[in-house]
Amino acid sequence: MPGSKLPVGICPDMCPAAERAQRERERRLHRFEVEREWTGDPPRADPQRTVKEYNRPAAGKPRPPPSQLRPPSVLLATVRYLASEVAESPDAPLAEVASFVADRLRAVRLDLVLQSAGDAETAVVLEAALATLLAVVARLQPAETRGPVDPVLLQTQVQESFGSLRRCYAQSAGPHPRQAVFQGLFLLYNLGSAEALYEVLQLPAALRASPPLRTALAIDAAFREGNAARLFRLLRTLSYLQSCAVQGHVGHARRAALARLARALSTPKGQTLPLDFMVHLLALDGPHEARDLCQAHGLPLDGEERVVFLRGCYTEKGLPPAGTCNVLVGSKLRGRTLEEVVMAEEEDEGVFRPS
Which of 74, 247, 264, 314 is deepest in the core (most CB within 10 A)? Predict the structure, then answer.
């Protein structure tokens, strides 16, 4: 409200003690939050693992007191925990991890909105939260999105995270060392969107000239033009976080490239093309993925090494195969942990630092 002053959070824990106790009584603890050695009933909350869950603010409900709000330093530590401990859980389904992380990151953004925090601190927390969300969503396979996680809701939360961060950039003078990186991620995530391209083109010229944004603009142009050779050549050069942002468009780009090849090469008697060429052109993970892609689009194979472009055979049914994307995404980690990527991505990409 006009003239009102936001409080400053003072909660020292990832989850306020009152909420932790209430959820323990109501049996609303996630298994990621329960004490590991506890075998009694009801489950006991672990203060070092319990993370504040998202609760939609209700109309007319009073604001939470400072004791219920986590300051930026605690919020950043919470994001680090989610990236290092929860997202890397080896024995948990990826869909369950994504659902939990997305909900807790949503609560992180809400805590920032409900309190007074510096622009620099806010930007750092929002950047880390968005990077974690992008990585967690990118690890999901299409079959896993039919379970406990809603892919539409995840996509909405990613877009909301971009909106919060870009508003933070616009409302403050900065400097924000990672702004160019995340503005580029915004365009890569919304590849082919005229609205996203327009918003990026409205950024200051010096910012648009930074390496991350130049790369993102070049990829967007290649995607729009249907230049598959240039597009996948550029995609190979991206960092892990950039690759996570653009992964959702890879299947559609491969389908579009295959459709162009089918129009150009199909003959009544059939014309063959080596699968190795397809693997190189479309940055596939190997001949097996090239065979799956061709068969999913009705193209027959000549043995194990060639595809036949026969007129009238190419079809498109449903969504394009997602593929494993190890070449374009998974291999980019290069032995680093997700926490290292989330907190130090700028070391790989050359941060643009405004003069």
Answer: 247
